[in-house]
Amino acid sequence: MPRPRFLDPTERGLSQLGQEILPVLYRHRLLTAGQLTQLLRPAATSTRYIRRQLEVLHGRGLVDASVRRTSRAGELLWYTTALGCEVVESGGELAPRAYRMTEDAAASQLQEHTLAVNDMGLAFVEHARRLGDECGPLDWDPEVAHRVRDGDSRLGDEAFLVPDSVLRYIHTTPTGDGGQQQRMLLTFFCEIDRATMSIARLAAKLHAYARYARYIPQPALGRGRPKAAGGYRREAWRARYPSFPRILLVLDGASQSQLAKRTDDLRALVAADARLLPAADLQAGVTTLEQLRAHGPFAPIVTPALGDPEPVDVLLRPSAAAVSVA
């Protein structure tokens, strides 16, 4: 898993912390000083030091800020500028991304959604620290496109599945054999809903994941060349993941009772959707951001989207989605 790697300490006169901030902002698009403090300096008692480093980066033209739309106190949301992106990309530690945050995008209505995605990742990071697991500031990647249909890439949503984030986590559990431990790589497709999405659309997301689980790409037909006999025989996800990731729907933006009703409505709609019957073996569940923060991903806080409604520790249930790495 990638970890924050430092640029040349002499480059642009940045401090070590300044060099850590840049790739994290680049990866996660929009963060508050508080989120950056929790990610990079969790022992700090205030955001003062992080804010000072952000001001230095701003003075060098590497980061900029937008005012949070919902904040009466004028809280700032930070992002990398075009120059900051170039500095990160030149370091070669992160894969370049086509998407770059702009002044208009940073000030848009997507602020709260972006922050919620990062709050979800932060919850995993904080609980990993408590448990001695591995999940760091760069271990979730927003909006990674996955093709789910052959043909014209201009089909947009019909051709691609784009999770809000793909998160990787290494969990360590004792085996009971002489104090030895087993390390499991857990990969998640994460979706955040702030009570702004219809239940039908949430159910459609699960349908898209089921389609991706079954999608086998076919070779392109060249002019005058016949299609290869039998086409491809492996699902596309196998080229990217050792096992099919778990699907985690994280709800926020309403009271816990309202979110519980949304969970029940989603389960009812999913159960009535014949298209999802072949996906009954998907590891998919629903929780809330509040529960994730308070109890962590390994408490019984996840309601399965399919099957028994009893909240369970779906993330640790033995399945093909947990891959031993040791």
Describe what this molecule looks like in 3D.
Helices cover 33% and strands 18% of the residues. By secondary structure, it is α+β, with helices and mostly antiparallel strands. Strands 4, 7, 8, 9, 10, 11 and 12 form a seven-stranded mixed β-sheet that branches. The protein has a three-stranded antiparallel β-sheet with strand order 1-3-2, with helices on both faces. Strand 8, helix 7 (199-214) and strand 9 form a beta-alpha-beta unit. Helix 1 (16-28) crosses helix 3, helix 6 (111-131) packs parallel to helix 9 (289-295) and helix 7 crosses helix 8.
Summarize the helices and strands and which ones pair or pack.
Layout: H1 16-28, E1 31-32, H2 33-40, H3 48-59, E2 63-67, E3 76-80, H4 82-91, H5 103-106, H6 111-131, E4 140-142, E5 146-147, E6 160-161, E7 165-174, E8 181-193, H7 199-214, E9 246-251, H8 256-271, E10 284-288, H9 289-295, E11 303-304, E12 322-324
Parallel strand pairs: 8-9, 9-10
Antiparallel strand pairs: 1-3, 2-3, 4-7, 5-6, 7-8, 8-12, 10-11
Provide mean pLDDT, rounded.
86
Tell me about the largest β-sheet.
Answer: 7 strands, mixed
**Tally of individual helices:** 9
Which radius of gyration do the C-alpha atoms yield? 21 Å
User: Spans with pLDDT under 50 lasting ≥5 residues?
Assistant: 1-7, 318-323
Number of beta-strand segments:
12
Structural class of the helices, strands and pairings?
alpha+beta
Strand-residue proportion = 15-25%
Give the ordered list of helices and strands: HEHHEEHHHEEEEEHEHEHEE
- Spatial gap, N to C terminus: 14 Å
Instruction: Tell me the overall shape.
Output: globular
The helix content is 25-40%
